Amino acid sequence: MRNEICKVADIPETGSLPTDKLVLVSHHLCPYVQRAAISLAEKDVPFERLTIDLANKPAWFKAISPLGKVPLLRVQQNGEETAIFESAVILEFLEETLANPLHPADPLARARHRAWIEFGSAILNAIGRLYSAPTAAAFLAESEGLSAMFDRLEIELTAGRAGPWFAGERFSLVDAVYGPIFRYFDAFDRIGEFGILSGKPRVEAWRKGLHERKSVKNAVSPDYPQRLLAFLQAKGSHLSNLTRRNEAATALP
Predict the structure, then answer these.
(1) pLDDT given at position 4
(2) Region 193-210: what's the mean pLDDT?
(3) Which end of the chain has fewer CB within 10 Å, C or N?
(4) pTM of the predicted model over 0.70
């Protein structure tokens, strides 16, 4: 199950057809869009970002997006335009065509990185199940499952890693993928103490480093936290109820 934010949203936006060479068709909250934005920033490549309303998709977007999801990269080359969809494909295209590679050169190391990128996608799906869980019991079960996934990641980070990033001193595509993941926990931490990342010092250190990375910071708009909170409140889930209770408890008289 792909993270639903990238398929449907609740905040209308408008945009005109792009004319630049690289145009990243986006949505404010989609973590898969953030991956591509981080990669482009790390490669120091100029691009236009066009945010659309996924609940009211423009006709031109429907015409060029077979799956109806973001991100979508519009590439203009030699007077022609090609639309590339699916974040993994976009990331690989950027790796193959632009300077400053984020993948390791060694084929085995590169395969390992791709595998942990897939693990990151599985974590995003688990996060989607967490914030959609209808009851306290379902929420607890999802939080325990998510915590176990980060336990596995903690083990991986422990093995032979020397540096702030997944591969040590060098920022990689794995880091670009996990930056948007940890951004969810900034929101969760404001709602309650769920303990999902507790007892995982290497995961927490990695999270802190990514939080401070310029490319990760700039992958979202300044009002991202408010937009995400509004999205979580609208889910009608157990987490939505916790969010409203937290706001009521902390509201000024």
Answers:
(1) 61
(2) 97
(3) C
(4) yes
Residue-wise pLDDT for 62-76, tens only, equals 999 999 999 999 999
Q: Residues 177, 181, 186, 189: what is their CA dihedral angle, to the nearest 10 degrees?
A: -150
55 and 12 in contact (C-beta within 8 Å)?
Answer: yes
Which runs of consecutive H residues, i.e. helices, occur in 86-162? Answer: 87-97, 107-132, 136-158
CB 50 within 8 A of CB 26: yes
- Whether the pLDDT of residue 7 is over 70: the answer is no
User: Token digits for 216?
Assistant: 């990760």
Backbone angles phi, psi at 74, to 5 degrees: -95, 120
- The CA-atom distances, in angstroms, between 23 and each of 49, 61, 89 are 6, 12, 15
Q: Determine the Cα–Cα distance for residues 158 and 168; give it in Å rounded to an integer.
A: 11
Distance between CA atoms of residues 6 and 68, nearest Å = 9
Average pLDDT, the chain: 91
Rounded Cα gap, residues 84 and 205, in angstroms: 34
Quickly count: other Cβ atoms within 10 Å of residue 89's Cβ. 12
In this prediction, residue 5 carries a pLDDT of: 65
Tokens 């905040």, residue located: 11
Q: For Cα atoms 42, 86, 51, give the angle at the middle one, nearest 5 degrees.
A: 70
Listed in sequence order, the residues at least 6 apart from 17 whose beta carbon sits closer than 8 Å to its beta carbon are 60
Which contacts of 207-211 are long-range, i.e. CB under 8 A and separated by 24 or more positions? Answer: 207/182, 209/164, 209/165, 210/175, 210/178, 210/179, 210/182, 211/182, 211/186
Are β-strands 72-77 and 48-51 bridged in parallel, bridged antiparallel, or unpaired? unpaired
